[in-house]
Amino acid sequence: MTKFEKYQYWTAIVNQQQDSGISIPQFCKQNDINYANFHYWMKTIEHTENEQIVYQVVISEPSILNGEIVVIHLPNGIRAELLASLILIQIQTWLKALQ
Q1: What is the pLDDT of residue 58?
Q2: Residue that wins the pLDDT comparison between 34 and 85
Q3: Could you give the CA distance from residue 57 to residue 4 in angstroms, rounded to a whole number?
Q4: How does 52-62 read in b/e, with b if 16+ C-beta sit within 10 Å?
Q5: What is the pLDDT of residues 9-65, one digit of tens each?
Q6: Is the Cβ–Cβ distance between 77 and 58 less than 8 Å?
Q7: Whole-angstrom Cα distance, residue 14 to residue 42?
């Protein structure tokens, strides 16, 4: 499992606990989760969400439809084709959604 996959997995677990309405120790016991691991990931996720995450983004030259499309390759393997006419806030919204 990659670091990104672990992060996604533990984010889902932490969210399940928060949605459950039961205490962390009780949730861990019911779901056979090591409390120390849960606590570590909860703090890691909390810390990461408070940071600004920066990823290198590779933007290739517009190649189709007479240069009207920009192809973006993200580090997580996602390839996005966006209209070159998008304004900055729209591009930022797409990049955030694709992370």
Answers
A1: 61
A2: 34
A3: 17
A4: eeeeeeeeeee
A5: 999 999 999 999 999 999 999 999 999 999 999 998 887 765 555 556 665 555 554
A6: no
A7: 6
Backbone angles phi, psi at 77, to 5 degrees: 95, -5
pTM for this one?
A: 0.50
Asked whether the beta carbons of 70 and 81 are under 8 A apart, the reply is yes
Instruction: List residues bridging with 82 in a β-sheet.
Output: 70
- What SS3 string covers the chain? CCHHHHHHHHHHHHHHHHHHCCCHHHHHHHCCCCHHHHHHHHHHHHHHHCCCCCCCCEECCCCCHHHCEEEEECCCCCEEEEECCCCHHHHHHHHHHHC
Distance CA 62, CA 83 (A): 10
- Whole-number CA gyration radius for the chain: 19
